[in-house]
Write a structure and sequence with these properties.
Blueprint lengths: L4 E7 L5 H12 L6 E6 L10 H8 L2 E9 L11 H18 L4 E7 L4 E5 L1
Parallel strand pairs: 1-2, 1-3, 3-4
Antiparallel strand pairs: 4-5
């Protein structure tokens, strides 16, 4: 287990939540048990309850992952892949303002690919 702690917000879609968590762990060098994982329909794009992320910060989280996906998201009915990614990019900017001085990663998936980047 590493010393670094993190927080990951991802969609609960059974096709993607594990892929998001694995990509985040690989990119950050953390083990799967080094970060809190919070899932909901729509992932970071629809996460409006700050309880989980605030809890993680209060307990030492310094690395954040903000995930969403395309390929039809049940938490974002009618939203295109491009629009979902655009919403994610906006959400990441909000979170960077809320948690300044920490590392933030964006993670966007479709059935064809996984994209992860430091924001």
């Amino acid at each position: 287990m590493s010393v670094t702690k993190g927080y990951l917000s991802a969609c609960m879609d059974k096709r993607f939540w594990l892929k998001v968590a694995q990509a985040f762990a690989e990119k950050t060098g953390m083990e799967m048990t080094d970060f809190w994982l919070e899932t909901n329909a729509g992932g970071a794009n629809t996460q409006n309850n700050p309880t989980g992320e605030d809890y993680a910060v209060a307990h030492g989280a310094q690395v954040f992952g903000w995930g969403a996906h395309g390929s039809v998201c049940g938490g974002q009915p009618g939203v295109s892949d491009d629009d979902s990614k655009a919403i994610l990019l906006e959400k990441i900017q909000e979170k960077k303002l809320k948690f300044p001085g920490n590392k933030h990663y964006g993670i966007f998936l479709t059935e064809e690919k996984v994209e992860i980047w430091e924001a």
